Structure formats: C-alpha cells, structure tokens
Amino acid sequence: MFSASMSLPATPTSDDWSRFLETTIAAFGCVTGTLHRFDTADQHLKLVAQVGIPPQLMPVIQSIPIGKGIAGAAAERREPVELCNLQTDTSGVAREGAKQTQVQGSLAVPVLEGERLCGTLGIGKREPYDFTEAEKRRLTDLAAEVAARLAP
C-alpha cells in the first residue's frame, strides 16, 4: 500500500512537505495539491505546501478560515469534502476564485490526530471525477499518518 509519509523525517522541512505532497498527488493521478496546518491562535489553516496552484491564488490559499472553501469545510466537518467538478459546482463550498485552478475533481480531507485537528490535505484532477470511498479512505489514512508531524 502507498505511504508517502514513510520518507518524512520526525521534523519535516518545507522541502520535505513539498516532496510528500508531490508523491501524494502522483499516487492519486492528480495535478494539484495543498497541505495546510491548523493554527489554533487564529483558527485558520496556514499553507505548508502546494503543487500546481496558480500564482494569482497564492494570497487566497495562504490562510483559510475554518468553514470556508473546500479545505475549510473539510476541517470544520472533520470529514472528506469532494467536488466532482469544481468548475460547475453550485453547492457554495468552493471559494470564489477556486475555478482559476482549472481543477475539476477535487477532494480535501482533514488531517486529524485522534480528534485533534492538525490541518487539511487536498488533491485535484483536471477532469470531472468522483473519488471512490476507497480513495477517500486512503487519503484520510495518509493524512492521519502525518498528523503528529504536521501539528505545531
């Protein structure tokens, strides 16, 4: 079974997190990914690593309030949040500007250590895609593997 977390040191650097994210999105056949750490001080998700996010969206994804956007919703709900096609979604989950990623199928999961929120992990495909329950479980399990190392 795939485990991108195996190669992470006890105290990962930003380069380690970027490699982890690149390995993760490749394993899921995705083209974009984000990893955020939960900051208890301001209740926001802070960007740790990203792959494939357009430069104009970087200011928007640096700090995400809990409950806002796909990552914020996954953190708030403490469960995976999926959009088959972000480009046509009308649920209101995706934040304004998210369509600029050109991502269609997207999945964000909370990074949990037990019940404690440590952050979120998100992946995206260029085509519409419904992630299977097994894929959601795999990404959730992978997020749980790295939770202790992501926690502040």
TrEMBL record:
Signal peptide: none annotated. Residues 12-151 form the GAF domain. Transmembrane segments: none annotated. Gene3D superfamilies: 3.30.450.40. InterPro entries: GAF, GAF-like_dom_sf. It holds the Pfam family GAF_2. This is Putative methionine-R-sulfoxide reductase with GAF domain.
